[in-house]
Task: inverse folding
């Protein structure tokens, strides 16, 4: 198995890279999906979130109201750190199991773990390669405004709540420049696939 950790800030084009690698045959594990599973009704993580932030973060159906929780944590670094301390360990446990399952199913698999908060999670994963999708702050802000309809102030707040570009680049084995055209991003993803598909499996 060859394990790639793929990370990048919000609106960095990371998901585009992940989809391209999956099209080539990589096994894709999505940390955002796991983070939703980790806080489903009945999970210890959801109970801990309610204990910390109150029942106002619950939707009428008993699930997590992500918008309500986001309104609290994205403007409060202490609250965000408290949330991360609850969610990150739960997601790590799920991801470790999914990675192990993928390797058991196909020892020669290329597994891509799409993890936006790799720097913030501070968890040790046995990555063979860490890939960072990188676009400048102005480009990411523009994307959030144009593709998600996000107000400029909210876009800046979301970007500022994440790790800095310098922190992400410091852990990168490979940087994919996503500041340019879609074709350029896909070309770099294709080159990455050519590099890893012949790499020796662990």
Result:
């Amino acid at each position: 198995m060859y394990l790639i950790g793929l990370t990048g800030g919000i609106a960095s084009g990371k998901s585009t890279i992940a989809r391209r690698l999956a099209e080539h045959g990589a096994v894709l594990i999505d940390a955002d999906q796991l983070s939703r599973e980790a806080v489903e009704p009945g999970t210890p993580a959801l109970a801990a979130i309610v204990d910390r932030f109150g029942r106002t973060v619950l939707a009428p159906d008993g699930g997590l109201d992500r918008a309500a929780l986001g309104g609290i944590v994205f403007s409060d670094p202490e609250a965000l750190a408290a949330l991360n301390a609850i969610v990150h360990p739960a997601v790590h446990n799920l991801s470790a199991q999914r990675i192990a399952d993928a390797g058991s199913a196909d020892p020669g698999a290329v597994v891509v773990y799409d993890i936006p908060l790799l720097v913030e999670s501070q968890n040790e994963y046995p990555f063979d390669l860490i890939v960072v999708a990188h676009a400048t702050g102005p480009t990411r802000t523009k994307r959030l405004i144009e593709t998600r309809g996000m107000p400029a102030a909210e876009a800046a707040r979301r970007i500022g709540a994440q790790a800095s570009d310098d922190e992400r680049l410091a852990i990168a084995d490979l940087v994919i420049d996503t500041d340019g055209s879609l074709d350029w991003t896909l070309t770099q993803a294709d080159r990455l696939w050519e590099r890893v598909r012949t790499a020796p499996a662990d």
Summary: The domain at 2-196 is CATH 3.40.50.300 (Rossmann fold). The chain has one domain: 2-196. The longest strand covers residues 2-8.
